[in-house]
Amino acid sequence: MTTETELRLQGMRVLIDAMGLVESERFLATINREKFDYTEWRKQGLSDLGVDEIAARANQLSLRIMSDDVEWGLQGDD
User: Fold this and answer.
1) Best CA proximity match to 28, nearest among 5, 36, 44, 64
2) pTM (predicted TM-score)
3) CA-to-CA distance for 43 and 66, rounded, in angstroms?
4) Domain ranges within the chain, ordered by starting residue
5) pLDDT for res 78
6) pLDDT at position 35, please?
7) In 10 A of CB 56, how many CB atoms?
8) Quick one: which of 14, 15, 21, 78 has the fewest CB in 10 Å?
9) 20 φ/ψ sector (left φ>0, alpha ψ -120 to 50, else beta)
10) What is the DSSP string of the chain?
11) Taking 80 as the threshold, does the pLDDT of residue 6 lie above it?
């Protein structure tokens, strides 16, 4: 199971890779400032994607993150 620290680190990598550092900071500030309902956001944001498509995209992202970890020297030694 991923620790909260690892989860936050992965999330930040994904945001920065997708949006850049400044836009990622702006996004996080917006989330913290506004009432955020993840369940409603998920329904609106992913409603047109099937489970298989979501899983495929998650797998692609995971591979990209693992590749970035190796490139950045962040891979674990366990």
Assistant:
1) 36
2) 0.43
3) 28
4) 1-35, 37-73
5) 46
6) 75
7) 12
8) 78
9) left
10) ---HHHHHHHHHHHHHHHH-HHHHHHHHHHHHHS---HHHHHHHHHTTS-HHHHHHHHHHHHHHHHHHHHHHT-----
11) yes
What digits encode the pLDDT tens for the residues 14-60? 989 898 888 888 888 887 777 777 777 777 766 677 778 878 888 88
Tokens 């991923």, located at residue? 2
């917006």: which residue's tokens? 30
What's the pLDDT score for residue 65? 79
Residue 12 exposed, middle or buried by CB count within 10 Å (0-12, 13-18, 19+): middle
